[in-house]
Specification:
Blueprint: E1 2-6, H1 15-33, H2 36-46, H3 50-57, H4 71-74, H5 82-103, H6 105-125, H7 138-151, E2 156-160, E3 169-173, H8 174-191, E4 197-198, E5 201-202, H9 208-224
Antiparallel strand pairs: 1-2, 2-3, 4-5
Length: about 240
């Protein structure tokens, strides 16, 4: 299921959401400009490498110019391909503006990055000895979705289901769309606990545990940071 839009207008201009989308696009254009060998080196440097993160937590140097803990942030702006980027940015475009509207710009940015870090740590927990880089904004965006489902459960989501040459649309409440998405990620996460890593993440290249973890942490952090408050106008600097 792919979201197209929500029936949920905002009261502020979501500058941070726009900025995050722009940053991800620019980072991807930089990736696309690199030759294959240089790209592999760059991704190994800036993405989360679980085994190196494990060693760094144990106080063992991994001899990288970028501290491994910093990759918990930098990895959030990297993507493995155009469709990976496009899908993530679409979800961020649809759901991010309303969460930013309620949290305010600064708290929303803090919330987004924190969800991304915690999502990566969730994925790391289940693949601590993997040498394959993990990257993407999916965990942070899952956090946005976790906050959205609790703040706007009944908002109508317009979506589409790609079925070959057919693209039927549907309208469902947010709790159904996002709840189904979360259950899917959690189910696949459990199913891939024993699966070998593949192109940077578990189970066929998708970091299901990062998605599920980000969603849960977003649902927790959102209310803590004021998701249910109407003070976003005073805190939107």
């Amino acid at each position: 299921m792919v979201p197209l839009k929500d029936n949920n207008p905002t009261e502020i201009t979501p500058y941070v959401t726009y900025g995050l989308i722009a940053a991800n696009v620019l980072a991807f254009l930089y990736e696309a400009s690199l030759p294959p060998q240089a790209l592999n080196g760059f991704l190994h440097l800036a993405a989360v490498v679980p085994k190196e993160l494990t060693l760094s937590f144990a106080g063992i140097s991994v001899h990288q110019p970028v501290p491994e803990w910093a990759t918990l942030i930098t990895s959030q702006f990297l993507h493995g391909g155009f469709l990976h980027l496009a899908g993530n940015m679409l979800f961020l475009w649809v759901f991010g503006n309303n969460v930013e509207d309620k949290l305010g710009h600064f708290k929303y940015l803090l919330f987004y990055l924190s969800c991304g870090v915690l999502a990566s740590l969730t994925q790391w927990y289940f693949s601590q000895n993997s040498n394959i880089p993990s990257l993407g904004a999916s965990g942070a965006i899952a956090g946005v979705m976790g906050a959205y489902i609790f703040r706007f459960p009944n908002v109508e989501i317009l979506g589409v289901v790609p079925l070959g040459i057919f693209f039927p649309t549907f309208r469902v409440p947010a709790y159904f769309f996002l709840g189904f998405w979360f259950l899917q990620q959690a189910f696949y996460g459990v199913a891939t606990i024993e699966a070998p890593t593949n192109i940077g993440m578990e189970g066929g290249g998708i970091a299901y545990w990062a998605h599920a973890g980000g969603f849960i942490f977003g649902a927790i952090l959102g209310p803590i940071l004021g998701l249910f408050s109407d003070r976003s106008q005073e805190e939107s600097f």
